[in-house]
What does this fold into?
Amino acid sequence: MLEEDSFSASFFSSSNTSPRGSQATPDLTAPAFPSPFDVSDPWSTSAPAPDHRNGSALGTQSTSKGSALDSGANGSIIGHYSSMPSLGHHEVNVSVATVLAGIQLPLIYETAWKHAGPSANRVSVGNLTKVLEFSGLTKSSIQKILDTAVSATASSISRNEFNVALALAALAQKNMTISLENLAEHRDDLPQPNLPGIETLIVQPQSSSRSATNIAADNDPWRTSTQPTQSSIDALGPGPTSPTPTPRRAPALRTGDAEADTSDETGRLLGPDIVTVAVVPEKEGFLFKHVNYVVESQQLNTHAIRRYSDFWWLMEVLVKRYPFRILPSLPPKKLGGMDDNFLEKRRKGLTRFINFIIRHPVLRQDEVVRTYLREPMDITTWRKQYPPVLDEEFLRKNSTLNLEEIEGRIPSDLEDRLAKARKRLQPALEHYANMCYIMERLIKRQEAQATDCIRWSLALNSLSESDRECHVEDCYNCGQIVQGYEQVASHLQRVSSMYDDDATLSSDTVLENLKRHRDLLNAFKEMLDRRDRLATNNIESLQKRVANNQVKLNQIRGVPGEESNADKLQKSIESDQQSIVTQMRRQTYTNFNLANELDFFHHNNLFVAKMYSDFMESQTKFQVSLADLWKKDSTSVGAFFGLA
It folds into this structure.
């Protein structure tokens, strides 16, 4: 008897008992031609169809597992496992999916879940936020709970994630650390969340189609690579309505030793970029290619060619010359190949860097900055021929300082103001990082809409070509329909241009402005960190040494043979006293600079207000123009389809 052909057995056999090493069995239930549509399309309004291969539905299996995990006696059992590994201080594999496995939770979890408006065994992040608000926790605590328990890209959550969020809220109510590790350590003695009035919460469940779309959010093709660090995007929902604040006049800025014209400073802060940075197309270098940048300003009448290393040198010089000023950061370095996308991001970062300096009331007057912008010579050659003075600002101005005038202009509560400003920095940085991330997503979506309109237009034009000749001779209606296709295609092209233009405008204006203010927040934080490192002194120890040396000097003064030691002590006392005076003057001038920088930092709130005002105005104009275009073209298109 002939042996069964291994290929035919593996291909046509309905069983899956082929020996190890044999050829894999092809799936005959798969379509012969793959669908051109992505089954995980995030824009679809229904969930992907369950996979019924091998006689079972994967979706059913997933549901059964979820029900086993989430259901129990009275719905309060999270899961049933024969054993659960103990989680100690050194446990690192703690996840939302397993941290509460096997724990019987009190009835409040079930009550809160019912009032959160579940649909398809999921609730929206917005409804979860409403539930957490009944806990009485602060907004920052609620946001941290969301950051810990909910994925940054999710719009809805499962029952298990909901329970983890409530458990974290219970920890926060007991002033315990909000973290999965801490939750794992207190698995056996979890506090009960207190949600007074939760029975009064009435929310509308989200639709099933909305839930299915949210479940597929992780497959969002427009998701950018930049992820927010800690704050959850979904937590940035609409909060309670607050009254509109009354505009107040910003305080006058101080520059150097005299107050600057506030209107002039406001014009610089709110105005467009003064200096442009452009990439030179040709790279230089024999073995290691580098990119040159044209740094130019028509307003300042400057033009220079600079490398990235030149920008880095300028930053290092400014840090040494102005350690207690707000100094911008540079975009990061990159070793290896640099594509066009990276170069464009770096160019924009360098533009923000140099314009930050030009807008600063003190830095823009620095002689090194002026030379950097105006010197046509290669900056490396120039700095070797004319090395700049790197002494800090106080040492260069110490001899001309009017200490009494400076002391009178330093706020008495400067330390309290700096402490309050520092406390707000980290949350503000996280929020602005999130807003930059969200704006990038919006721009990506708008760019995708522009591309889809073009593709739709091309499809309609192709359709008009194939349908131009009707099988009925002298058919008037089909000819009109074909012309209607062409009119719609032309309209979609115009719509695509509008989307594309608005995406470009948003990228160059609102996104860059958000990053500009984010850079300011980070620069202010770095200035405070430098102050902690560099604004130290040893005045107290010097005063003690002066006192001790004075006692010794009094003891040996006039004693025969001690004249030399007395002279040494006298010189040491005079040197220490001079050092004390210098350090006290430096401390005073440092506080004066910090007060000025705090005013400059606060004055930039005007820029934030204008940024959002301009954004709202531009979006209003865009939406009105887009609506007018649709209305205008709908009339002409309707005429071809006989609908006018």
About this structure: Residues 490 and 566 are 98 Å apart (CA to CA). The chain has a mean pLDDT of 75.
